[in-house]
Amino acid sequence: MNNKLMFVNCQKCGEDFVREECQHSIQERSLKGTWVIEEVLKAIEKGYQIIETYEIWEYDTIQLSKDQEGLFSGMMNKFLQIKQQASGWPKHCLTDEEKNRYIDAFLDREDIKLEFSKIIENPCLRSLAKLMLNSFWGKFAQKENQNKTSIVRDCGEFFDMLTNPSIHVNTVLPVNEETLLITWEFREEAYDVSSTVNVVLASYVTALARLKLYSFLEKVEERAVYVDTDSCIYISRKGLDDISTGDFIGDMTDELNGGFISEFVSGGPKNYAYKYTTLSGEEQIVCKVKGISLNYKASQVVNFEKIKDMVLKKSDPVSVLSRQLRRTREHAVVTVEFPKGYKITSMKRKFYEDHTSVPFGFKKIKY
After folding, report:
1. Contact indicator for 217, 232 with CB cutoff of 8 Å
2. Using an 8 Å Cβ cutoff, are 267 and 314 in contact?
3. Distance between CA atoms of 260 and 267, rounded to whole angstroms?
4. If DSSP codes are grouped into helix, strand and coil, which group holds residue 39?
5. Residue 367 confidence class, pLDDT cut points 50, 70, 90
6. For the DNA-directed DNA polymerase family B mitochondria/virus domain, which residue ranges apply (predicted)?
7. Backbone φ, ψ for residue 276 (5° rounding)
8. Can you list the alpha helix ranges (DSSP code H) found in the chain?
9. Which of 35, 135, 252, 311 could pair covalently with 39 via S-S, beta carbons 3.0-4.6 A apart?
10. Percent of the chain with pLDDT over 90
11. What is the pLDDT of residues 149-159, one digit of tens each?
12. CB of 357 within 8 A of CB of 351?
């Protein structure tokens, strides 16, 4: 919706970014889209109603039993084993007995055998294994019609490309008197379907991950102050359940190792900062902003206090001098220095004056 991943309560409010109380009809509010069945079942559980169904895809194999080899089981289990071993021992595993108990529990829960001698903290190896696990799924949803580059030295070939109705020539770069570098792409109706793309598999991976995250949000409800793909920052209160942590796949981990956040501020998706106190009583500040490398110079402009000031006082955007390595059209690699604007973004939800937020189209129940 609006070229963004948005979760709304009203189709029309979301499309038009309506920040007032929703006045649309049920027909206007209804969401039209494509979902995997697990998402539909969850929506029905939460009170949604299906008004109309256009098409359903059903597969012969829906759920594998534990003794069956899945489509990617071998590959996934191998890199999950490497990632888990490179994460090191959990903090509660101090004795050999506790370590062996952890290995047995992981085998019982995940059907993956960890090797005692290989469980050593190795951030680089862990990062590599994580990359192999995550980037693999993105290929299934990769854009099929990618730009292509051709080196042309023949006038007839160049003319054929310009007159070919199935392709669109994007750029023509003269290399020398005899050579052209041409970038082009197929027109939408003409490109070949890739054998590596499967949007159903990609949809299931992302949908089930969202539902897993949602299961944590159901526990904390309005106490959640920020969520991302695999993380949740929430307010802990006496008498109310906290999100449990664990050592297994799908379990949350405590990123602060027993510390707690005293102040948190967010300027939008992947744009937040917080102060936290460690177990030893030391106060630390974490600031993360997507697209801006917060080196010493940049952190003098964009930091916890600045983000807090921009959110609470709605102060003006700021500019940060950024450096990037870029490739020119001539394929030379250069360092480019340019100003990059930083501002608060709040386009995906409706915000109130007290800084609480709800989905577009949210309506309070009137008793």
Report:
1. yes
2. no
3. 21
4. helix
5. low
6. 113-219
7. -140, 155
8. 11-16, 26-29, 37-45, 73-86, 96-110, 123-138, 155-163, 199-220, 296-299, 304-313
9. 35
10. 66
11. 999 999 999 99
12. yes
Task: Decide: 42 and 214 in contact? Cβ < 8 Å.
Answer: yes
Q: Are 289 and 340 in contact (CB under 8 A)?
A: no
Indicate the Cα dihedral angle 232, 235, 237, 240, nearest 10°: -40
Residue 251 burial (CB count, 10 A): 11
Query: Buried b vs exposed e over 198-209: b needs ≥16 C-beta within 10 Å?
Result: eeeebbbbbbee
Quick check: 243 pLDDT over 90? yes
Would you call 315 helix, strand, or coil by DSSP? coil
Looking at beta carbons, which pairs linking 125-129 to residues 24 or more positions away fall under 8 Å? 125/82, 125/86, 126/82, 126/83, 126/86, 126/87, 128/82, 129/79, 129/80, 129/82, 129/83, 129/86
Q: What average pLDDT does this structure show over 329-348?
A: 87
Residue type, 111: D
pLDDT in tens, 43-93: 999 999 999 999 999 888 777 777 777 788 889 999 999 999 999 999 889
Q: How far apart are CA 98 and CA 45, in angstroms?
A: 40
The angle formed by the CA atoms of residues 209, 213 and 215, to the nearest 5 degrees, is 115
pLDDT in tens, 2-37: 888 899 999 999 999 999 999 999 999 999 999 999
Q: Which amino acid is at 61?
A: T
CB 91, CB 256: distance < 8 Å: no
| Per-chain mean pLDDT for the chain | 91
